[in-house]
Amino acid sequence: MSFPRQRVGLYFHLHRENISQIEVVLFLRYLLRQIRGPIMLLWDAGSIHTGEQTQAFLARHPRLHAEAFPAYAPELNPDERVWGHCKAVLANGRPDNLDELLATLERVTRKARARPCLLRSFITGSDLPPLLRP
Predict the structure, then answer these.
(1) Neighbouring C-alpha atoms within 13 Å toward the C-beta of 3
(2) Which terminal residue of the chain, N or C, has fewer Cβ atoms less than 10 Å from its own Cβ?
(3) What is the number of domains present in the chain?
């Protein structure tokens, strides 16, 4: 399977509570509508990713190709750099409630999404093998 690497995107949904396989499948459905061509998913081996509902959805959608990170390997996960960026931007703020925090996170991630060089830096700054880098 070939994955063109010239386009980098940031797709996310924020939730107030822990998510289940249902939310994962809904998000994957969203990705399939937003992105043409093959989609490589890099994620951990948590139960929401390896569970029956998620795996059945992946089996029905061959455009989705999932690769699990090894256990305890945050240095490989570009998502850690995304959250590090968000935390740095939020460091001097003080939201009064959860709604304010979610709105601020939404704004920060929307701005990051508009900066392809920043998104690439999250990936190239990780220890991912060169094959998986843009």
Answers:
(1) 17
(2) N
(3) 1
Q: What is the CATH number of the domain that holds 104?
A: 3.30.420.10
Which residue range forms the structural domain that includes residue 105? 21-132
Residue 125 neighbours by CB under 8 Å, 6+ apart: 78, 81
DSSP lists the bridge partners of residue 65 as 40
pLDDT, tens digit (0-9, with 9 covering 90-100), for 33-74: 999 999 988 888 889 999 999 999 999 999 999 988 887 888
How many other C-beta atoms are found inside a 10 Å radius of the C-beta of residue 7?
A: 10
Q: Is residue 110 within 8 Å of residue 9, measured between CB atoms? A: no
* pLDDT one-digit tens code per residue, 85-97: 999 988 988 889 9
pTM passes above 0.70: yes
Query: Which conformational region is residue 72 in: left (phi greater than 0), alpha (psi within -120 to 50 degrees), or beta?
Result: left
Instruction: Locate 9 and state its tokens.
Output: 């995107």
pLDDT beyond 60 at 126: yes
The pLDDT mean for the chain works out to 87
- Give CA angle at 23 (68, 128), nearest 5°: 25
